[in-house]
Amino acid sequence: MSSHEHRFRLFSSVEFEGQLYMTPHNFIESVTMSEPRSTRAWRSLTKQELEKTLSDTPPVWRGTSKLFRNLRERGIIAYTEYLFLLCILTKPHAGFKIAFNMFDADGNQMVDKREFLVLQEIFRKKNEKRGRKGDVDKSAQLSMQLYGYHVAPINSVLKKDSEEFVARSYWDILRRCASQALFSDLAERTDENIMTDTTLLVHFFGKKGKAELTFDDFYRFMDNIQTEMLEIEFLNYSKGMTTISEEDFARILLRFTNVENINAYLENIHHCIPDDKGITFDEFRSFFQFLNNLEDFAIAMQMYNFAARSIGQDEFARAVFVATGLKLTRHLVNTIFKIFDVDHDDQLSYKEFIGIMKDRLHRGARGYKSEERFTSFRSCLRKELASR
To answer: What gap in Å lies between CA 71 and CA 198, rounded to an integer?
Structure first.
């Protein structure tokens, strides 16, 4: 299995017609914890139970940054939607405007359910390209558990019933042809009639699946889910206060990375920031918004490398602003430097910082670091002892 597949199976808790699903609460745990709080057999849902569960899903225009926390166990998230949500959490907002326009195959500034299902097919195909080694039957069984089907019936999502596309300009014609070239092969396996309705589909397109999604609603959803997951992480450490300590900020940054000796970084905080001023939620959020633009920031930082200039705090803050438009507070920048300035020369170790933060972006999808592997081993050991 890929690391994404492994993590989805590890945290999912429900099953419907042979396909595995996460609940909203499962998804929260998967992006904020190393492993589930409890392991139990997958709970099977009947059709009536699923319909009752989905009836609690609010429409997208009533969006809130507490959607997943409010729903908790009352919802289901498919594997392809899990990949989609992870992408939302780790990508810059600007890229989604481009993606939205590409999925808007008929150019009406809205995306309907059939157009949106192409997105899921893209994530599925991208995942399958990585390939799975091992037993063919087990691979087929895993595919069935994750996607619910092997090969779906052919049905084009680009063609509207008794509708023809009226080109408004040369650019519309070019865009229409590009959309057909991009999505014609993906549409072959996409059929909304055989898809199980999920929390996300009902949230976006209503219980009957006839509503259409505007970019404003989609952008608000994207901003809300990013805020919600950051609030959960922040509140886990703030204990009701308005700030978290610089040490806790370092712990959060270094989670889900391959850093072997976290204590060395924490020691930097103890020695270099003796007075605990704290990190506010606004500072916390602005840092992770910057992190989602890490690739653009890396390009800006390379300019300093090419010019053989050292990377001090002022250069770092300027590169962040140029690449992302975000102004990080001086205290936040200073804290970042103190965490990663291992040799205490007040210069950023560029390669180390970029590498560690890229790991952090994937939130555990690249595998577990040493501390988490040891935790998993201890869990297995406890289960083995309990069974004897």
So the answer is: 13
79 vs 85: CA distance, rounded Å: 10
Nearest residue to 201 (alpha-carbon basis) of 123, 122, 120: 120
- Three-state DSSP at 205 gives helix
- CA-CA distance, 187 to 198, in Å (whole number)? 19
Q: Which residues, other chains included, contact 295 with Cβ-Cβ below 8 Å and sequence gap of 6+?
A: none
Is 82 within 8 Å of 22 (Cβ atoms)?
A: yes
- Tell me the DSSP string of 113-171: HHHHHHHHHHHHHHHHHT---S-HHHHHHHHHHHHS-SSPPP--SSPPTT------SHH
DSSP conformational letter for 22: B
Position 147, amino acid: Y
Element (H, E) at 229: helix 215-238
Tokens of 375: 């935790």
Alpha-carbon gap, residue 190 to 314, rounded angstroms = 50
152: its two tokens: 């779906």
φ and ψ at 35, to 5 degrees? -150, 160
Q: Which residues in the chain belong to E strands, given as ranges? A: 14-16, 19-21, 43-44, 110-111, 213-214, 243-244, 279-280
The amino acid present at 254, given as its one-letter code, is L
0.85 exceeded by pTM: no
Name the residue with higher pLDDT: 231 or 381: 231
Q: Is 158 left (phi over 0), alpha (psi -120 to 50) or beta?
A: alpha
Q: Judge whether 133 and 1 are in contact, CB under 8 Å.
A: no
Tokens of 276: 């605990």
User: Which structure tokens are listed for 246?
Assistant: 């610089």
- Average pLDDT for the chain: 76
| Inter-CA distances, 272 with 133, 253, 267, 301, Å | 48, 17, 8, 24
The neighbour count for residue 2, using CB atoms within 10 Å, is: 13
Using one digit for the tens of pLDDT, what is the confidence trace for 127-142?
Answer: 555 555 556 566 666 6
Rg (CA), the chain: 23
* Amino acid identity at 135: D
